[in-house]
Specification:
Elements: H1 5-20, E1 23-24, E2 29-31, E3 39-41, H2 66-73, E4 81-84, H3 91-98, E5 102-107, H4 110-120, H5 125-141, H6 150-153, H7 158-170, H8 176-193, H9 215-226, E6 236-240, E7 255-260, H10 274-282, H11 286-291, H12 300-314, E8 315-330, E9 333-336, H13 337-344, E10 351-356, H14 361-368, E11 374-381, H15 382-385
Parallel strand pairs: 4-5, 4-7, 5-6, 7-8
Antiparallel strand pairs: 1-10, 2-3, 8-9, 8-11, 10-11
This protein binds S-adenosylmethionine.
Length: 388
């Protein structure tokens, strides 16, 4: 049975919109001391998601709007040295690379780093396609493959599960791009086996009878869909590392722009969601990875202070630092992201632009749930305001 690509597109697009679409409420400009003649404009955004891009390669939790990222980055000077200390699957990194910046990404979730590398490392397209064909052929003819572990196997038709394990058995030679497509195809196949009924809130709900999905063609289509978007350049470095010790791997005073969406303080689990499924199939101990991430209520402030102090060592005194944060309920109390970060950051008087979900799919989600979520873009301009 084949997966209709249109369903994939719709779901990719819906998923991305549900999580990340934001509309800016007001139009504002922030003076940029590093390039005094320039301004960073955080204006109203009509459209936040582009399904025809590389960013649908994997449905990572907390992925940010690529259109928003591109809008900010297009205003930065090419060649600037940009750091995303919580880069996840590399939305900012990819968009910055496209625009000629020198980019460093850091994330302590190795799976996210593989996806980020897959989007940004140079590849030979012809070789990649030939290698994929050869690998599928080889996977097909293996006389034995280990069964899928019991927990993830529940979500797949048994034929699909076996095909996934066949690809896993030959994936040692895959480039990060092929790995990213492989992991993304696992997520697509899980949704498809369950009749495409999974949304952000119903992931993991088994919908029998499980449909048989041809995993080999799902993977092949995914690779074909994304390969032309890879514009790899050697100007990107991605490290699987703890941002609280970023000063150990990024040289002091070497970063002109920090641009990031940090982990949320409502303890969003970046090893959960589809990543749980993929990690279980790969035999990765997600508890161990989760232990290295900032996502516990009780230590969030301490952890984040540590990360900000480490960041402070790698920026210089004309750097600009941009954090995209949100409002969250913590123990029944609403915490405004920009207030929290203004309080704990070592930098003085940030400029803040607040945005909210309005007419998008996320706005609909808000209406249904009687919520009114907000996000803020917090900008510290060290050249203008300096440190505290
Ligand atoms: C909001 S997500 C970033 C998503 C990213 N902008 C994207 O589009 O994919 C926050 C990221 O912070 C990472 N993270 C959490 N704690 C970390 C730590 N101590 N060091 C480095 N990264 C960490 C998580 O793994 C997660 O990928």
């Amino acid at each position: 049975m084949k997966i209709a690509e249109t369903s994939n597109d719709k779901l990719d697009s819906l998923l991305a919109r549900c999580h990340h679409s934001m509309i800016a409420m007001n139009e504002s400009e922030v003076e940029n001391a590093h390039w005094p003649q320039r301004k960073i404009n955080l204006r109203y955004l009509e459209k936040v998601n582009n399904p025809h891009s590389i960013h649908g390669i994997y449905p990572y939790r907390g992925k940010m709007s690529a259109i928003d990222a591109a809008h900010v980055i297009s205003q930065l000077v090419p060649n600037s040295r940009l750091l995303d200390p919580f880069c996840g699957t590399g939305t900012i990194i990819y968009e910055a690379q496209l625009r000629g910046l020198q980019v460093t990404g850091v994330d302590n979730n190795p799976l996210a780093c593989i996806i980020a590398r897959g989007k940004t490392e140079p590849i030979d397209k012809e070789f990649t396609l030939t290698h994929l064909e050869y690998s599928i052929e080889k996977a097909h003819t293996l006389s034995y493959v280990p069964p899928m572990p019991t927990a993830p196997a529940e979500y797949f038709h048994e034929t699909t599960a076996e095909q996934i394990m066949r690809i896993l058995s030959v994936s040692d030679s895959f480039s990060p791009f092929l790995l990213a497509c492989f992991y993304g195809a696992i997520c697509l196949a899980a949704r498809a086996c369950n009749g495409w009924l999974w949304t952000s809130t119903s992931i993991g709900k088994i919908n029998p009878p499980l449909r048989e999905i041809d995993f080999f063609s799902t993977l092949f289509r995914k690779v074909r869909k994304h390969i032309d978007f890879v514009k790899g350049t050697p100007l990107v470095k991605i490290h699987s590392y703890d941002a609280r010790a970023i000063n150990e791997i990024v040289p002091s005073n070497s970063i002109d722009v920090v641009y990031t969406s940090p982990p949320y303080f409502d303890a969003l689990d970046y090893t959960g969601y589809y990543t749980k499924l993929v990690m279980e199939i790969l035999g990765i101990d997600r508890n161990q990875i989760r232990d290295g991430l900032i996502q516990r209520y009780s230590t969030y402030e301490k952890d984040m202070r540590e990360a900000l102090l480490a960041l402070d060592q790698v920026v210089h005194n004309k750097s600009i630092i941009i954090f995209v944060v949100g409002n969250r309920m913590v123990h029944g109390k609403l915490v405004r992201g920009s207030d929290f970060f203004s309080k704990i950051a070592p930098w003085a008087e940030p400029y803040v632009v607040e945005r909210e979900y309005t007419k998008t799919a996320s706005g609909l989600w808000d209406r249904i749930n009687a919520t009114r979520r907000k996000e803020q873009v917090v900008v510290w301009d060290l050249g203008l305001r300096g440190r505290k």
